[in-house]
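Database export, one record per block. Field names are fixed; values are copied verbatim from the stored entry.
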Amino acid sequence: MKDLKHLIYFENLLQNANNELIRQAQAEGRLCVGYTCENVPEPLLNLPGVFSARLRAPNTGSTEIGTYYLTNFLCEYSRSLLERAVEGGYNFLDAMITPDGCTMMNRCVENMELLNAVAPGKEKFFYEYMEIPMKSDDNGLNLYVLQCRNHILTPLHERYGIDVSDAAIRQAVADHNRICSLIRAIGEYRKGPRPAITGYEFHVLTLATYVAPKDLLIEKLEETLAELRTREPMEESEIRARVLVVGSEVDDTDFIKLVEDAGAYVCADRFCYGSLPGRDPIVLNDDEDALTQICRIYMQRCQCPRMMDTPTMNGRRAYVDALAAEYGADGVIYQQMKFCDPWAYERMLGSHILHEEYGRPVLSVDRPYTIGSSGQMRTRVQAFVESIEIKKIRGGAD
């Protein structure tokens, strides 16, 4: 296929946490709030005058400092973030908000604060820590609303004078939905036997919407969507197997590229930093305040393994199965970052259930934060692709 016109532009945005669009927005007087987890409702960080940047540590090398403070038993994502913070890589932030998605992330951000590693000297800079519900019920919703009000809206208003009214929140949701609609429309081109966009390209585009001011991406995303309408799609013979990638945080585009280079087309993305359900639009009504509705939607659609009520746990596997059917996946790659405890348990149970109860071919792997040129991972994906091909041949013979 012909290269996407803006692909290099989007790739370059991902090379540095303090990318050019962040610098542009701050030059215009807007504030940047960093966050670390999908359990923080994005629209609340994108009110008038403020925008969000989900933290990454691109081009991570050594994590000696992060490991010194966090030990080597914590996931490489948390260690890499702390390493980058100590290096001064997040000094562009005006605030830092993190939920207790896991204790590792809390320890990472707590160490940033104790070391005064982020934005030293910024008088109004603040850290906030949120408690997130573990069950999707009325008590959980009440907790979620309280936490968002106390740890996002109130400090933004009191420290920086940000408008946190219901009207401002609704406008932020409308802006959020615009970017979601674009990403989901682009993602539709992954369906069918001849997709018009690779999984790698789609991941690059989606990732950019998490780490840069969303409004500054719209023009190029709209042009990309228009480009896909006339782009010559892939040949069916080019795709050996279609896979759905599921699991923990993936902000390393090289991982998706490795999977596809090994013969597996990534047709859908159910992982942290992905589009499913992270780029589902938020539909509000006029009968209830926007904050409560946003919290309910985030709580009910959450696919994070920290949600431990039985219906939600069962729903996570049913959701993956439904996505595999919708996107025509031949198999599922269930991945988890090394030492990520919540996803380690979820991967073990989820991969077993998807295979035994739903009949899905599953490759279950753990991986480093940055994959590099891992020959072992490439070999495992290649073997998985070959097993799917063999199954297709045997099925055709039957």
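Remark 1: The chain has a mean pLDDT of 95.
Remark 2: The longest helix spans residues 138-160.
End of record.
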